[in-house]
Predict the structure.
Amino acid sequence: MSSAARQLIVVALLLAAVGGLFLAAESGQRQLVQASSRVELAAQREQALSEVLQVLSQAESGQRGYILLGSSAYLAPYQQALQSVAADLRRLDEAFAAADPRTRAEITQIRQLSEAKFAEMKQTLDLYRTQGRGAAVALIRGDFGETTMLEIVDRVRQLQAAEADDMLHASRSWRSNRWLNLATMLGALAAALFLVLLLLRLVLRYVSSKEHEAERLAQRQAELERVVQRRTEDLSDLSTHLQSVAETERSALSRELHDELGGLLVAARMDVSWLEEQVAGGDADLQARFRRVQDALQAGVDLKRRVIENLRPSLLDNLGLLPALRWQVAESCERGGLSFVERYPGEELQLIPQASIAIFRIVQESLTNILKHARARNVEVTLAKRDGALVITVRDDGVGLPVDPRQVLRSHGVAAMRHRAIALGGECRITRLAPGGTQIEARLPLERIEVPAAPRTQA
C-alpha cells in the first residue's frame, strides 16, 4: 500500500474519532438535559402537591380556630385558602399532565378529596352559623373530615415519595451515563491522539522520502548537467577545431588559387596580348574578339581576387585587422547600397591571429545578415577598448530581429559568431533596437586576444 493511501486511511480514522468525540459530547449533553428536565419536573410536581396540602391544612386550621374560639380573625386563612385552592389544583393538574394513567388517577382522587374536604369545612361553618358551636363541634369530631384529610395526606406523601425516587433515579442515571460518556470521550480522544501521532509519523516519513527523492533528483540533475557540460565542452572544442581547420584550408586554398590560378590567368593575358599585336592588324572583328577575351580574362582575375579575399583576406595577413575591416565594410556596403560609419582605434591593434580572424568573421557575418535580412539604409561599425575588453559593435536601422527568438537561435551565422566569441573567453549579444534595427555586440577580453609584450633586455 502506498504512503498516500495509508495517509488517507489514517485521516479517515481520525475523522471518525473526532466524530465519536462529538457524538459522545452530544449524547452526554442530551442526557444531562433530560436528567435536568426530569429533576425540574419532579420538583414542580412535589411543589404543587405541597401547595395543595398546605392550602388544605391552612383552611382546616383557620376553620377550626374560628369555631372553637369564636374569633373571626381565624377565618382569614380559610378565606385565602378558599380563594387559592382552585389555582393550586389547576397547577397540580398541569404538573401531572404528562404522567402515566395510574398517577393521573391519583391526582384525580386528590382533587376529589380536596373538594370534598372544602365542602365538609363549608358545611361545618354553615352549621356553626345556624345551630351554634355544639353542632359544629360535633360535626368536626366526626370521622369524615379526619378520614378525608388523612387520605389526602397519605396520597400526597406517596406521590411526593415517588417523585423523590424519580429525582434520585434521574440523578443516578445521569451520573452513571456521565461516567460512561467520559470513558467514551477519553477513549475517542486517546484514539484521536494516537491517529494524530500516526499521521504525523506518516507525514514526516512522506516528507523525508520526498526530501531523499529531491536529493536523488538533484544529484541526477547535477550529474546530467556535468554530462551536458562535458558534451558542450567537447562540442565547443570540436567546433573550435573545425573552425581552425576550415580557416587553415581556406588559407591554403587562397594561396593555391593566388599562386596557380593567378599565374595561369596572367600568362594567358600576356599570350593573348602578344597574339593581338601579331595577328590583329586592321581587322575590326578580330580586334573586337581579342577585347572580349581580354575582358573575360580580367573578369576571371577579378573573380579570383574576390574568391581569395572571401576565403582569406590578404589585407588581414599583409596590413593588419583595421585595413581588412575597412575594405570589408566598404566593399559590403557598396555592394548593398548602404551608408556606413566606422569608428576604430587610432593605432593598429596587436592581436593574436585567432582573434584577428575571429573579429573579421564576426563583422563579415554581421554585414552579410544585414544585406540579406535587415533591409537597412545605414550601418555603423565600432571597435573600442572598454573595461579590459575589446568591444566590437555592428548596428543597423533595419527591420530588427524576428519576433520569435527561436528563429534567431536557429541561425547558423549567429551561432558561429557566438561560438567565435566564446572560444576567446568573451560573449556575443544580439539586441533589438527601438524603434527599429539590430545591434550585434561582441566583447573579447584583452588578456586573451592581445599579443604579449616582449620583455625588455638590459643593454
